[in-house]
Amino acid sequence: MLQISEKGKNAPSSPIRKLTPYADAATKRGIKIYHLNIGQPDIKSPEIIWDSLKNYDISPIAYTDSKGNISLREKICKRFANDEINFNLEDVLITTGGSEAMMFAFMSTLNAGDEVIIPEPYYANYTNYAVQVGFKIIPITAKIENGFALPSMEEFEKIITPKTKGIVIINPNNPTGYLYTQEELEQLSVIIKKHDLYLYADEVYRYYCYGGKHFSVMNLKNIEQNVILFDSMSKTYSECGIRIGELISRNKNVIASSLKFAMARLCPPALGQVVAEASMDTKQEYFDGVRQEYMTRRDVFISELVKIPGVVCPMPKGAFYAIAKLPVKSSEDFAKWLLEDYNYNGESVMVAPASGFYATEGMGLDEVRLAYVLKVEDLKKAVIILREALKVYPGRTK
Amino acid sequence: MLQISEKGKNAPSSPIRKLTPYADAATKRGIKIYHLNIGQPDIKSPEIIWDSLKNYDISPIAYTDSKGNISLREKICKRFANDEINFNLEDVLITTGGSEAMMFAFMSTLNAGDEVIIPEPYYANYTNYAVQVGFKIIPITAKIENGFALPSMEEFEKIITPKTKGIVIINPNNPTGYLYTQEELEQLSVIIKKHDLYLYADEVYRYYCYGGKHFSVMNLKNIEQNVILFDSMSKTYSECGIRIGELISRNKNVIASSLKFAMARLCPPALGQVVAEASMDTKQEYFDGVRQEYMTRRDVFISELVKIPGVVCPMPKGAFYAIAKLPVKSSEDFAKWLLEDYNYNGESVMVAPASGFYATEGMGLDEVRLAYVLKVEDLKKAVIILREALKVYPGRTK
After folding, report:
1. Which of B5, B54, B111 minimises the CB distance to A5?
2. Under an 8 A CB cutoff, do A242 and B61 touch?
3. In chain B, which residues have their Cβ closer than 8 Å to the Cβ of A271?
4. Are residues A178 and A202 in the same domain?
5. Selection from A97, A137, A98, A135 nearest residue A117 by Cα
6. Are residues A37 and A160 in the same domain?
7. Do B53 and A271 touch (CB under 8 A)?
8. Angle at A35 between CA A32 and CA A36, to 5 degrees
9. How far is residue A198 from each of residues A115, A117, A166, B184, measured CA to CA in Å?
10. A17 vs B107: CB contact, 8 Å cut-off?
11. Residue A138 lies in a domain
């Protein structure tokens, strides 16, 4: 019999998308669904990009350099330098979205069975990358009671083994919205250095911090060779569809290995690179405006959300996600019920059950991830629906 | 010490691109280089695509469906149906280039150590995919004396083991230009059925056949579940940079597994999909014109090439590549010498040593892969340079 591989069998479905059939069915029944499940911002891409597409006429649309266009890489170096994050042109590979940067980095540095520590909850696709590359995610739980702060270094030390090859830090965090402080990251750097680990850093939301200042791991001292940075245009410029990201590391061996994988897929998308390059001239006002919009959404959404009896949700400090604890036994059952059996004046809400963002079995069962990527009026409505739904949900626990 | 993974160490560099530093140095010295090494066509993309970019204004440029836009998938089904290749909408996933289709298929069907038979010489990136996924390529040599025809079924049977999970067929072939006949493929299908193997078929050049008619493995009887097809817009529409391809299979388990990997990378490029969809309305005249152009190039190039004493090159019947045997001991040394030490009136030629297209150690050492993607005048000049170079090359064998 034709077989599917172990990896094909073991790869998880996206926890964000797996309830989509229920949402589709609800929509077919005429229910309007507010999507809090997925981080697809409704924020417009910068106006500045459109001319780059209108004027594009290079025929044939050819392969670019496997590393990405040099003009784009130069602009990326400059953009980071403006933010006081410095590295050389040779330290950057343009990738097909941040996800490809992650795959190249893991594939270049991890053998089957190697262990990587990730504070949970974490961006769920890492579980899929771990299956694909064959490494093992060792979760360390960031607790909702602590606002999802970085677990103590003692806790990290406890789970480091000879197989541990690296630690992943998502900052600001998806899905918790936590913003790691410089102190937390400096503490972490001591462990990274001591055990000679890779520090894989996912800073794709760094432009969207509310209040606190983002500190990049690229500026940690003494671990310059250990750091591998994942960046993406998707969220910074609200251009998820162009599929342009970057792998950045001062470790030449990591870049050399990644480049071999990059050559095998030929090049990153040429049109996406054109748009990305045009995006680099986006004025600060754009980011200020977007940041203000997200901040307003966050303030309205979270302040209303935590008024619901039994709901706990630490205030996110960056990105546009929050993890909320609900007074339910199973957030997955609740999420399905919202789509299948409930509506409030013909409307309902789609949320992502949080268990898919944890590696530890049994964690996050009463939590959901919420993306506040809708406009304020819709977020207000969504919270009302959640509140009213929880009043009548048969599986309510308290 | 920070380590690079075994895969990172073992992944090969592209044999097409590895001599690039020598070519760059030659260009810097003022030598004009004719690039016969790489399959980047100079043929223009269809005119019909430009309006799709000029008129594109969907903001934000958002993620698409992980499967690709349904409108594009529908058009792809229709395009294939026009060519009498029939399958359903659910059998297609849009991928980031043909290369991603290959990775998804291999990752979905092969475990570490599984064996896949590929007639050599073959598209060199398969070696890289094998390293990434962890399967083993078992080569079966297609001989230049036989014009690179499919080896006999007896030879296939000899190397099939319990670990053999599939066979890769590239048709028309890159790098040989060989076009497999319906009869050859039907013979192969008996073996595929008998041993219950996957038939991975790379038909990305199927629009460019000269003389013979292309027969798709999708039309082989009795092995509908075994066939996995890789397609790409890159060569068909001379749009290598849009990075849009397709994974097509009637095997629902293969598609379901691949979709999980597809979700983890979120979506194929949105802008590339827009261009791809516009390309679908390309008129037959475009293909006829391009085919005629390639045929003319082939005829001029190969007929001149085989006049050089000691050069053997079977006439390619499709794609735009040829493998030529040269009167040299090492085609790699010769290729380097062409770039480092030779010029003919200030011009030289870059060729790809063929050994990188073979898995068997020692094969192809006196062969090169040549891509006839230059205009006729340049191809004529390139052949003259090769002829004159071989007259004076110190490593000439006969």
Report:
1. B111
2. yes
3. 53, 241-242, 269, 271-272, 275
4. yes
5. A137
6. no
7. yes
8. 140
9. 11, 10, 4, 50
10. no
11. yes
B238 and A60 within 8 Å at the Cβ level: the answer is yes
Pair A234, A146 in one domain = yes
Q: How far is residue A134's CA from residue A136's CA, in Å, rounded to a whole number?
A: 7
A217: domain CATH number is 3.40.640.10
Distance between CA atoms of residues A251 and B107, nearest Å: 28
A residues 35-54 lying closer than 8 A (beta carbon) to B: 40-45, 50, 53-54
Q: CA B225 to CA A276: how far, in whole Å?
A: 41
DSSP, res B149: P
Residue B119 lies in a domain: yes
A50 occurs within a structural domain: no
Q: Which residue of A has its CA nearest to B239?
A: A61
Same domain, B36 and B55: no
Does A128 lie in the same domain as A161? Answer: yes
Q: Which of A279, A310, A344 is the last residue of a domain?
A: A279
Whether chain A has a CB inside 8 Å of the CB on B169: the answer is no
Identify the domain containing residue B67 by its residue range.
Answer: 49-279
pLDDT tens, chain B, 398 aa long: 899 999 999 999 887 777 889 999 999 999 999 999 987 888 999 999 999 999 999 999 999 999 999 999 999 999 999 999 999 999 999 999 999 999 999 999 999 999 999 999 999 999 999 999 999 999 999 999 999 999 999 999 999 999 999 999 999 999 999 999 999 999 999 999 999 999 999 999 999 999 889 999 999 999 999 999 999 999 999 999 999 999 999 999 999 999 999 999 999 999 999 999 999 999 999 999 999 999 999 999 999 999 999 999 999 999 999 999 999 999 999 999 999 999 999 999 999 999 999 999 999 999 999 999 999 999 999 999 999 999 999 999 97
Residues 6 or more apart whose CB falls under 8 angstroms from that of B46 comprise: B237, B238, B279, B282, B286
Q: How far is B61 from chain A (nearest CA, A)?
A: 5
Q: Which residues of A fall within a CB distance of 8 Å from B12?
A: 260
Q: Which two tokens stand for residue B367?
A: 């062969």
Residues of chain A with C-beta less than 8 angstroms from the C-beta of B162: none
If one counts the domains in chain A, the total is 2
**Interchain CB contact of A252 with B (< 8 Å):** no
Give A-chain residues touching B267 at CB under 8 angstroms.
240-241, 243
